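Page 42, continued from yesterday. The earlier attempt failed because a stray header line got pasted into the input along with the sequence. Redoing it now with the clean sequence only.
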Amino acid sequence: MVDTPSSLPDPGLFRIPPAAVARHPAVLLAPRELRTWIDTLPMANPPRAAQMLMQQLRLLVRDPQPGTRFGALLELYDAPLDQLLQIIHERMQGNPDSAVPLDQLEYQLVELLVELAHGYLRLANELLRGGKPAPAQILFRAMNLLDSATNIERLHYHRLTPDGWRLLLNVFVHAERQGSSRQAIKAASAQGGDPGTVRGLFFRSLVVSLCDPHRHRPSQILSWLHWAGQHSDALQLTVLPQGAYSIPLDISGTLPPLASARRGKPGPDVRYVAADAFLQQLQSDPMAPKGLQHALMDVIKGRKTPEQRQSPRQPRNHPYRLLYGLRAIHHRLKELTQGTAPHGQAFSPLACRQVNQSRSGAAFHLQGPLNPPLNVGEPVLAEAETTTSGGAPVGFAARVLRLASNELNEIEIGVEKLQGRLIPVTIAGAAADRGRFDNHALLQHAMDSGRFTLIAARNLYREGDIISVEGPSTRYNLRMLDITAVVQSTAYIDVEVAEA
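This time it went through. Structure tokens are written below.
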């Protein structure tokens, strides 16, 4: 396999915010003065400390003439930034599947990381203007900061900006052209397991982007980042497709990675990620994270088919109401099944708008923040707003497949319809008394296959146990077979009807 870094075109100077026209009187340009100021930051109040750091850092990075000690001043921000990063990482480790939306500290930390990266890229631009290569240390530092900001956003289902991906790509291209992308650098605030090269950071970020992190839970993304970072050397960028598993990549930065993989065509702005060795390691490693190989193969195989979806999307613009949570969906389905009018406001639906639909799913826009937040894999109940009083309810039950949000807390979800009948049931008998869990559940009956799935509290599951469930006009004895998915405390359990 031949790697051809010399074929990459020169991306030019890094596109970063311009310098201010005049110096701000509050900017600190003396290292000793800045160090003293940093020591007085209220680190016991992380959001306040992050806000103060951001204000001062922005004045420094955009100062018209920061002086010869600009690089040394930037390095002083490493220690407080590392403290704030530790707080964020501890949060994620403590609750890795409930990470939306970005809170005040996380927004501020992302801005801090990107602004500090802009500072290092400003140093790189000054060298590039003079015809000198940017040192590997500067490029790696900028890449590490941008990568950290990107990962925080990914783990909160936050939509990545085109500028963020373009900067990551351009840092990698510069390092490849200069022959420094493989040079190992000790990161000032590296987390355990992070790659130590520009190349490693880039390919790790690329792999996760190709797998569409908006379709997977944060705990999965964390495990993928860890494994991909350790095996990024198995990936190569080539001029022509090599091997059975090559993925197109737009190196101009016009298309994000996933769109490039799906729509990439041969041309001067396209290179190919040779993934054969990476996939082979993924398949042979018994400790490889679940789902990563499947997600990559979906991209590779999907690119080879003319139709990416099972059925085409049809644009829509219709107001809907959305319910989520087992108890809320159970309550509303019971009302619909029994033909009773909604009683009270125990479960207020969310106003949303359907923007497209297909035979198997739909997409909705809604305004956040949501409390509790939605999660990928969670069941929802969507009902169309009716224009006439007394009209029959129109809607469907579904499972969230994809979730993305932005800085305005605007949320977009893609859902897959739950096929067959969805019956609101209550756990009865001994199972209802043995644990402290919600006895409300949903029983999905796929009419075509005859398969039954019980959507219930995770604590209910005991392999092989037979439980009784009661619906509005039915009663079943169900044998629990296997758990197919878990979302927070809710499980999707394969069951079969047992003889009484």
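Notes: The first strand starts at residue 236 and ends at 238.
Reminder to self: strip header lines before submitting.
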